[in-house]
């Protein structure tokens, strides 16, 4: 309730288990929103180069994830052609495409504990081992079993690397660059898809697998020259190493690095006290705290709609999906390369849009545009007259779907993982999220051939359109705006009285957050 000075006192239900935490929290001074923000010095070219170099190596890993995801799109047509040296049925092809996605959650669940124990950079280093071994198996494959083993290893590598790459980028970036750097993995992922499509259009699939080993091996060498995440080092109480790493990332400004580390330390102390006050057990996992559970729910439900909207189905089955939509009027290479190139260009532009435009308007406009394109394509395929006069309509609608999907639905996944999970639970929360995404992706990829037979192309795009619009509505109701917000402010949103964005973003609540950051009212916890 309001105190005599107009500020909200922290109230905790009385009980012997909470007395100590309550006293500590009540004696802890409030840190205002302005105090909690880091005072940033003017950008120096050294800081930009340092963060850019670190990001580039991490993005090399996400590019190889894109290569792995896009590989089946042109691999399956080669395997299923009449002159294939490894003849493959539709059922075998569905396993080759989807086994990557069922193995990825294994790596994802492992990535959380691993990155918390040995660090973000070290986790990415470890992920390179199964990736190179996987591509090696594929390059030597003379049977479906060896090919599936290779795809399984690259799937595990994708799971091991996806969350650490996003977390590393979020933790090294200055807030004004965070949207650009955390959004960049979508562009590098798309670039990896384009690269694998281009290689597969001119080289045999085994040779493509050999070439695909070059980028991860190069990243392996470069990672040894770069520091670990300063935030992780600070959490491990390796203060001197954290200061050295952050000073390098800030262009040599030790004063700025010290200030940022002080803010990190203060926030960690507050988080620890709050978790103790909100939990009857000090050993309780941070994943079970209400703000993190809420963030997990919002991120994973949206990602379910994202996957079911066909975002990744078109990547794995690009040739098949788009030839069904266009009636087979274009070649495999034309379809695959145009969609991949479109995705690269749109995600690159979107990275810079993120510096000016909020996440919510980009996601909602992306969903409305791609949903409308999918529904129009479904209607056209169902009712359009059979004539060559309008043969340009289906491919145009497909490209429109890819355009709108790319700058919002496709890339928001990485942003949500990087910006919505607080540091104390970012590792396990990111691992759980990536595992959930890829489990959903496995079922959608594995069942795609059956869906095409059951629904036909018109029904398939009707399904994509409805899932896209459902995801858009969910984003409108529940997704918080993270642009320009500190990670502590984002966490405070999920501690509010409601999951609905409108209620938690009311003027009264924004004022309350500003006055009382980052202390929470413990009565609001369940």
CATH superfamily: MFS general substrate transporter like domains
Extract low-pLDDT stretches: 1-43, 517-526
Helix content: over 70%
**Quantity of strands, as a count:** 0
Polypeptide structure, described:
There is one protein chain. With about 525 residues, the protein is mainly alpha-helical. It has a single domain (about 45-240, about 290-480), classed as Up-down Bundle (Growth Hormone, Chain: A), CATH 1.20.1250.20. The chain contains 22 helices and no strands. α3 (about 45-80) runs antiparallel to α4, α15 packs across α16 and α17 crosses α19. The longest helix has about 55 residues, at about 425-480. The two termini are about 20 Å apart. The model is unreliable at about 1-45 and about 515-525 (pLDDT under 50).
Which characteristics define this entry?
Growth Hormone, Chain: A, 75% helix, 526 residues
Give a short summary of the structure:
The chain has 526 residues and is mainly α. It is built from 22 helices and no strands.
Topology overview:
Blueprint: H1 19-27, H2 33-36, H3 45-79, H4 90-118, H5 120-140, H6 144-172, H7 175-202, H8 205-211, H9 214-223, H10 230-235, H11 239-249, H12 254-278, H13 290-308, H14 313-316, H15 318-326, H16 332-353, H17 359-383, H18 393-420, H19 426-478, H20 487-493, H21 501-504, H22 507-516
Helix pairs in contact: 1-12, 3-4, 3-6, 3-7, 3-9, 4-5, 4-6, 4-19, 5-6, 5-8, 5-9, 6-7, 6-18, 6-19, 7-16, 7-18, 11-12, 13-18, 13-19, 15-16, 16-18, 17-18, 17-19
